[in-house]
Amino acid sequence: MEDFEGNKASAHYRMFSVDSECNGYTLTVSGFTDKGAGDSMTSHNGMKFSTFDRDQDTWPENCASNFMGGFWYHSCHQANPNGVYRWGQEKTPHATGVIWYTWKNTHDYSVKSIVMKVRPVQ
């Protein structure tokens, strides 16, 4: 990932899998290795994928609707890579941007980019 100041960081996970549609696209993520960004994904482990029209998180309200993007929300997020594209810390609604909380230690800094890469298990 990259911020608007040109800094880059990453987080690696040994295990990342998504279950079938009939199981709500449940996320399994583990085996974190810090590459500067901190671990913002483990708190989403075991969660189903939530969208505006399919609320599968544990929060009484709809995380996808409130934070403007589909993801494996719990109640609600440490990571929000599908949030609205914002410019760093511009004054926008709280936690709606492209967030990786453990890197910036805030829900109010939207990073410039996040790339998620997966590969087959070897």
From TrEMBL:
**Residue ranges annotated for the Fibrinogen C-terminal domain, each copy included:** 1-122
Cellular compartments annotated: Secreted
Identify the domain of life: Eukaryota
Q: What is its main location?
A: secreted
Gene Ontology MF terms in the entry? extracellular matrix structural constituent; protein-macromolecule adaptor activity
Q: Tell me which UniProt keywords the record has, alphabetically.
A: Disulfide bond, Secreted
The GO biological-process annotations, alphabetized, read as: blood coagulation, common pathway; fibrinolysis; platelet aggregation; positive regulation of heterotypic cell-cell adhesion
> Which Pfam family is one of those matched by this entry?
Fibrinogen_C
Query: Coiled-coil stretches, from where to where?
Result: none
Q: Tell me a GO cellular component.
A: fibrinogen complex
Q: What is this protein called?
A: Fibrinogen C-terminal domain-containing protein
